[in-house]
Amino acid sequence: MTSSTTTSADAPARKSSIPTLLTVFRIVMGPSIAALVLWAATLFYVDPPLAGLIFGTAFVLFVIAAATDWLDGWAARKLNAVTPLGAALDHCADKVLITCVVLVLAYAALPMELVFAAVVILGRDVAVAGLREGIAAQGKALPVSQLGKWKAAAEMCGVAAFLAFQTAALLGQSAALVLGLYWGARLLLWAAAILALVSGAQYVATLLRKT
User: Fold this and answer.
1) Domains plus CATH for the chain?
2) Residue range 169-186, pLDDT digits in tens
3) What CA–CA distance (Å, rounded) separates 122 from 185?
């Protein structure tokens, strides 16, 4: 006798939602960490220890959020949950996280020279996003280059180092630690700015070959 009820073996496998949840977490963390930085900035001279604790919280959350950039991709492959929506959200989450935090740091905490580096980084990201949208309308794709990945890693590490620098400075840590974090942040953010320019030029060259 043949049963009319569909068995669980016949049903399509349901993809895990864990990778998407990790990606959404990264999106939420962008404005949340930015809000913490703005709050800490209002307490620079009013209550430095509290400002340091808030910067420390922002640092921890940023490191966790940045780690999900790798973790959600790994989980998607491990759980066979790679989807077009997940891939689109993953790219969006990276930009939301870094744009929110870098923009607020430029407004509230970065020295002027690093503000310039931040403008280069964010300007390049906006330009490349526009190029991708334009070429997508032609049914083509502009894949992420290796230099682009290095730029993303440098800016993530640079932002984390600057948040750690602010935490250490406001909590009265040793001068050697504070100075080391400051110079680490400077070098990483300038490296990201230089890689942003070079990889941006690389994307333009690739686009010209495709058109």
Assistant:
1) 18-210 (1.20.120.1760)
2) 999 999 999 999 999 999
3) 17
Alpha carbon distance 62, 64 (integer Å): 5
Between the two ends of the chain, the Cα-to-Cα distance in Å is 62
Count Cα atoms within 13 angstroms, Cβ side, for 168.
17
Q: Yes or no: say if 192 and 155 are a contact pair by the CB < 8 Å rule.
A: yes
- Tell me if 166 sits within 8 A of 109, measured CB to CB: yes
The structure tokens 């905490």 sit at: 109
Give the tokens for residue 129: 């996003």
For the chain, what is the radius of gyration of the CA atoms?
A: 21
- Residue whose structure tokens are 């974090």: 181
Does residue 75 contact residue 20 with C-beta atoms inside 8 Å? no
Q: pTM here?
A: 0.86
Residue 82 binned pLDDT confidence (cut-offs 50, 70, 90): low
